Amino acid sequence: MRTRQTSSLHARVMLDMILLNLLLGTLVVAVGFWLLWGTVSPGIVAGWALAVGGFQWWKARTITEVWAWSTLLLGLESFAWPLTLMIQLKGASETPSEGEMGTILSAVVLGLFSSVFWISFSYGLFKRAWGAAPDPPSNTSHAPLVSQPAKRKKAR
After folding, report:
1. Quick one: DSSP state of residue 147?
2. What is the mean pLDDT of the chain?
3. Dist CA 122 CA 55 (whole Å)
4. Does residue 150 belong to any structural domain of this protein?
5. How far apart are CA 62 and CA 96, in angstroms?
């Protein structure tokens, strides 16, 4: 009786932890989306957050998978940031000013650096979450193989 209660409690705590991490991961991605688009309405950010949260609820089964998807989306948002900035600045005038060119250069350097970081981080999390289970130990002896010195005949 006690073990059934303990396992039920353990399952409930794990579900609560997954939900908490799902909420935090969705919040991180929503803040990244808001920073990416800047002046977008809160309704669009909330819609994006709901879409990301629903996707993660459907796809992620563990806390590691929740953060793998969150960091992958954050990496994609970081990659899109310099692109959206260039599109926004190109729409303002035909040739960007020197200050705008500096802004674009900073965005490209920081955006690419952070996108590579977050996508690499998500790759490691996906590899950890979806990695193959270790092989079960076999019944054979695991004694190290020691090579026997070759017996040579002496040359006469």
Report:
1. P
2. 84
3. 16
4. no
5. 46
Residue with tokens 């998978």: 65
- Single-letter amino acid code for the residue at 41: S
Rounded-to-integer distance, Cα 130 and Cα 148, Å = 41
Is residue 91 situated within a structural domain? yes
137 in any annotated domain = no
Total tally of structural domains belonging to the chain? 1
Q: How do residues 118-134 score in pLDDT, each as one tens digit?
A: 999 999 999 999 885 55
| pTM over 0.85, yes/no | no
Q: Kindly list the distances between the CA atom of residue 120 and the CA atoms of 72, 83, 124, 127, 156, in Å, as whole numbers in the listed order.
A: 8, 20, 6, 11, 64
Residue at 139 is within a domain: no
Cα-Cα-Cα-Cα dihedral sign, residues 140, 145, 146, 149: positive
The CA-atom distances, in angstroms, between 9 and each of 6, 15, 22, 61 are: 5, 10, 20, 18
Q: Are 21 and 67 in contact (CB under 8 A)?
A: yes
Quick: pLDDT tens for 46-84: 999 999 999 999 999 899 999 999 999 999 999 999 998
Determine the structural domain holding residue 72 and report its residue range.
2-130
